[in-house]
Design a protein that fits this description.
Layout: H1 3-19, E1 29-33, E2 39-41, E3 57-59, E4 65-67, H2 75-84, E5 90-93, H3 97-103, H4 119-124, E6 130-131, H5 139-148, E7 154-157, E8 161-166, H6 169-189, H7 199-208
Parallel strand pairs: 6-7
Antiparallel strand pairs: 1-2, 1-5, 2-3, 3-4, 5-8, 7-8
Helix pairs in contact: 1-6, 2-5, 3-6
């Protein structure tokens, strides 16, 4: 896809997520790699429901703002993710209800905040590690994302929300939606107990679908 098509795609995907309640107000941000190098990022304080393709923030290959409206203050963690993963072409950060609620719970396993309750959680996410709380836009968030990105497609920011990558922005969006739905299902069934996938089943999925085996960025 060329830059114009990627601009249109970002607006379409963001609007769809907004209309279905995955993002509200000015919450969340998303980004995509450009074919000639550089990135498109949603502007600061923008709403997923009213983005303009012409005013999306454009960054060069070094992450410097070159055109469009001022980029999201959280673009640093997007850039950190991209720099660790050559295969990541799009990133979505949400304040979606179920995952944000999950991020506020005590006693989460920092290595994996959700059990393997569905095959698509394993196939799209693998594991969901927790990043300690840092204020939105804090430079330290980029450092924490960079540590986890080589081995994870998604991370959960404590008391904040998820960061999810994909080979394209479309795939990152699908991954984000699947992850939010997994958290919602987990909250629904948690009081009743649950059957999770066993180690053999998880291993089969990871092998068959090459989960978290992507090459690092050069």
């Amino acid at each position: 896809m060329n830059e114009l098509q990627l601009r249109e795609q970002m607006v379409t995907l963001a609007s769809s997520m907004f209309m279905r309640g995955y993002s509200s107000g000015g919450a969340g941000n998303m980004s995509t790699r450009l074919p000639e190098g550089g990135f498109l990022v949603t502007p600061t304080n923008s709403s997923f429901g009213s983005l303009d393709p012409a005013t999306l923030s454009k960054l060069d290959a070094q992450g410097q703002w070159v055109s469009g409206e001022k980029p999201s203050k959280e673009s640093l963690m997007h850039l950190a993710f991209y720099r660790q993963r050559a295969d990541i072409g799009g990133i979505v950060h949400l304040h979606s209800t179920s995952l944000t609620a999950l991020s506020c719970l005590p006693d989460l396993d920092p290595q994996d905040c959700l059990p393997p309750i569905t095959p698509y959680f394993v196939m799209r996410t693998g594991k969901l590690p927790l990043i300690r709380y840092l204020r939105p836009g804090h430079p330290g968030l980029a450092d924490e994302v960079a540590k986890l990105a080589p081995d994870h497609n998604a991370m959960l920011l404590a008391n904040h929300g998820p960061v999810i990558g994909g080979t394209t922005l479309r795939e990152a969006t699908f991954n984000a939606e699947e992850l939010e739905d997994t958290a919602r299902i987990w909250f629904m069934i948690r009081p009743h107990g649950m059957n999770t996938l066993n180690d053999e089943q998880v291993s089969e999925l990871k092998t068959r679908f090459s989960v978290n085996t992507a090459p690092p960025a050069p």
